[in-house]
Write a structure and sequence with these properties.
This protein is of the alpha/beta class. The protein has 13 helices and eleven strands. The strands form two sheets. Strands 7-6-5-10-8-11-9 form a seven-stranded parallel beta sheet. A four-stranded mixed beta sheet has the order 1-4-2-3.
């Protein structure tokens, strides 16, 4: 590959265009977003348009850049100032990938007959959304759905919090809660709403052996949880039991507990896996 001149000007059209992607409106218009750091760039390989890297980072992550070049993804060297300008973090890691949007149509997710799904209903915090996505990936979920009132999937904090899991499993965005629940149920998926006020608790669900089938968990807003109209859509409203003195669990922790409980039940004798 021919050598690419180093990017040094903060006014370079490439730098200006990349920096504009910090705003949701520009991300939506261009259908592009930035992935920061070596882990994100490594996992984003199939979705990369080009990569910007400092000289020091190029030495540290030569394997990533070799994979990019093998995939015919342009790699542009850039000054520390340029990469810092593109970055959203206080301490940039020296490598940034420009990526194409990768969300999946909800109908395509349904056609794949998923056995475990996380639905984020009105989740507004990007760090929480990215962490739940990471938990869903780790638990073996086949899809994540962000409802129409949830945070932007491509928010830099969400991308960073997913630690690469964004690139591992299908994610649908902008789906109304009612549509998500009703069409999942029509596809043979049992829908559970995770809520601290649930009549059923997770231990009882596991003891009854009712969690081994295809399941979608609906998780609500960090501050006020799930509204009554959303809870009413679910097949059951389930709380995570608090055995100690903690007032509650945060969203990401509760999601991890629920998703792993389903993953274990589905892999037990009689489960759907």
């Amino acid at each position: 590959m021919a050598a690419v001149p180093e990017l040094t000007s903060l006014r370079s059209p490439r730098v200006v265009a990349a920096r504009r992607l910090a705003k949701r409106s520009f991300r939506g218009k261009e259908r592009r977003f930035l992935a920061e750091g070596p882990q994100a760039v490594r996992e984003a390989l199939a979705h990369l348009i080009e990569v910007y890297v400092t000289a020091d980072a190029a030495e540290r992550h030569a394997d990533i850049l070799a994979a990019c070049r093998d995939a015919r993804v342009p790699v542009l060297t850039a000054s520390d100032e340029v990469v810092a300008e593109m970055s959203d973090t206080v301490t940039p890691q020296g490598i940034v990938g420009l990526c194409r949007f990768l969300d999946t149509d909800f109908a395509e997710i349904l056609r794949a007959r998923p056995k475990l799904v996380a639905v984020l209903a009105h989740v507004r915090d990007p760090g929480n959304a990215g962490t739940v996505l990471r938990c869903a990936d780790a638990a073996g979920a086949e899809a994540v759905i962000l409802t129409d009132a949830s945070v932007d999937l491509y928010n830099p904090k969400c991308v960073r919090a997913s630690v690469g899991s964004l690139f591992h499993l299908p994610v649908a965005v902008g789906v109304p809660v009612r549509q998500a629940v009703e069409e999942l149920r029509e596809s043979g998926v049992r829908v559970l709403a995770a809520d601290g006020a649930g009549q059923d608790d997770l231990d009882s669900e596991l003891d009854r052996g009712s969690m081994g089938g295809p399941t979608a968990w609906v998780f609500g807003n960090e501050a006020w949880g799930l509204p009554e109209e959303t809870r009413a859509l679910a097949d059951a409203v389930v709380r995570v039991p608090i055995h100690g003195r903690a007032e509650s669990l945060n969203l990401a922790t509760a999601a991890a507990v629920c998703l792993y409980a389903s993953a274990r039940a589905q892999r037990a004798p009689g489960g759907c896996r």
